[in-house]
Amino acid sequence: MLDEKLKQIQEQAEADFNTAKTSKELYDLKVKYLGKQGSLSLIMRDVGSLSKEERPEFGKRVNVVKAHLEKLYTSVEESLGAKELTLQIESERVDMSLPGPQINVGSKHPIQMVIDQMVSIFSKIGFSVRTGPMIELDKYNFEALNIPKDHPARDMQDTFYIDTNYVLRTQTSPIQIHSLEKETLPLRVLGPGAVFRVDADATHSPMFHQMEGMLVDKKVSMADLKGVLSFFNKEFFGSQVQTRFRPSFFPFTEPSAEVDCTCPGCSGKGCRLCSHTGWIEVGGCGLVHPNVFEQAGVSSKDWQGYAFGFGIERLAMGKYGINDIRLFSDNDTRFLEQFR
Ligand code: DAH
Q1: What is the 146 CA–ligand 1 centroid distance (Å)?
Q2: Which of 32, 163, 296, 311 is deepest in the core (most CB within 10 A)?
Q3: Quick check: bond before 148 cis, omega within 30?
Q4: For the chain, how far is it from start to end, CA to CA, in angstroms?
Q5: 280 and 152, same structural domain?
Q6: What SS3 string covers 32-101?
Q7: What is the residue with the minimal CA distance to atom 8 of ligand 1?
Q8: Domain residues for 234?
Q9: 185 and 72 within one domain
Q10: Quick check: bond before 56 cis, omega within 30?
Q11: Model confidence, pTM
């Protein structure tokens, strides 16, 4: 009876082991037949039904079956394991010939590119960079620049007022004043930065950028100023570019001029970029007004100076043929990546 049962267990186990599909399934079968609560352990509990003489013999036979099944388990386990490994390798195979994921590399913003070029050109002739706060005292943005409260010149710039004392600076010119107050003379300073005005259309943006420049020395003339700005325009746009001054008014300079250069898009022949005038306006300039010197504690008898302020977007639009100022702040990567 027990022998018959043992034979059945053996046959069933062999069949099960041989048809197991995964190592996990096989392992569960090992527990089922060979484990502590497995069929072979359980059958030993029945030896009580045998005679004393038969028991050791039966025990030996169970051990033979057990050894046989363990061997079978090991060999099936090896071949299943090998198959599974092959499958795993196959499924995780990397095709080295496929193109890698694309990494998008950023680029400098065109405004920053122009600032960098300007700084590098002016640094050749001794100018170095200063900065100032974007939230500026009314005093620095206007009064110290010879624009008193209620003066009509304030209407030239539509201002974002924070309160009665503070404004978002409408120009980089206050950087001049900070330098005059703090630094020793003579000086050559360059002040790049963002400025703000209540204004928005295709050529005006509520935030834009300017590059201020100021030179203070013992003897300074409009001719010096024109020479320096012509040098800059040629370095920036190319040696064919001409520079002209048009008489103008700024409260902080006297005389004052508007700075134009021949349109880099058409070399002065006239095109859409320059509204068919052949010239583009790039900034304002002039000789520092004595009132500006005196208010900053600098003697206008001992010192003279010139100052200029370039519109950075203007320069970038001229150089790269851009006709809408809003493109600079839209953050459209199709626009930005053209400057990579
Ligand atoms: N701050 C002037 C503006 O925003 C530009 C300017 C003109 C700056 C003449 C100057 C200057 O330093 O001398 O319109």
Answers
A1: 12
A2: 311
A3: no
A4: 88
A5: yes
A6: HHHCCCCHHHHHHHHHHHCCCCHHHHHHHHHHHHHHHHHHHHHHHHHHHHHHHHHHHHHHCCCCCCCCCC
A7: 309
A8: 110-339
A9: no
A10: no
A11: 0.73
CA dihedral 144, 146, 150, 151 (to 10 degrees): -170
CB atoms inside a 10 Å sphere around CB 67: 10
> Residue 222 domain-assigned?
yes
* Distance from residue 288's CA to the centre of ligand 1 (Å): 11
In the block, residue with structure tokens 């079978």: 72
Q: What is the pLDDT of residues 47-93, one digit of tens each?
A: 888 888 888 999 999 999 999 999 999 999 999 999 999 999 999 99
Quick: pLDDT tens for 245-296. Answer: 999 999 999 999 999 999 998 999 999 889 999 999 999 999 999 999 999 9
Q: Hey, which residues does 306 pair with through a beta bridge?
A: 215, 287
173 lines ligand 1 (CB under 6 A): yes
Residue 114: both structure tokens together: 């122009």
Give the end of a domain, one of 34, 60, 91: 91
